[in-house]
UniProtKB/TrEMBL annotation:
Protein name: Larval cuticle protein 9-like
Entry keyword Repeat: no
Domain of life: Eukaryota
Signal peptide: 1-17
Gene: 101891069
GO molecular function terms listed in the Swiss-Prot or TrEMBL record: structural constituent of cuticle
Pfam families, per the entry: Chitin_bind_4
Organism: Musca domestica (House fly)
Keywords carried by this UniProt record: Cuticle, Signal
Species lineage: Eukaryota, Metazoa, Ecdysozoa, Arthropoda, Hexapoda
Length: 94
């Protein structure tokens, strides 16, 4: 469930840009008990996420995504997700 929430947060960053972009870099590694993925687009959107299964049902996830708003501000969100929820830290700069 929390993995889905974090994935949606990353997809939100892509949708927020609302423009077409080409992929500069992309990687993914998905295993039974851990995963990593990331991408970078030509429109300055970048995302990275990794997680691992702790115990039988608990995913511990961390990641970040960043983008530039339509008014030129750079936004970077760093987050963790665990049994207690999604924990973002948002940074804004110009």
């Amino acid at each position: 469930m929390k993995f889905t929430i974090v994935l949606l947060a990353c997809l939100f960053a892509v949708a927020f840009a609302n423009e077409e972009a080409d992929v500069i870099k992309e990687f993914r590694e998905v295993n039974k008990e851990d995963f990593k993925y990331g991408y970078e687009l030509t429109n300055k959107i970048r995302a990275f996420q990794e997680g691992h299964l702790e115990g039988e049902k608990t995913w511990l996830v961390k990641g970040e995504y960043e983008f530039v708003t339509k008014d030129g501000k750079h936004v970077k969100v760093t987050y963790t997700a665990d049994d207690y929820g999604y924990h973002p830290k948002v940074e804004h700069s110009e």
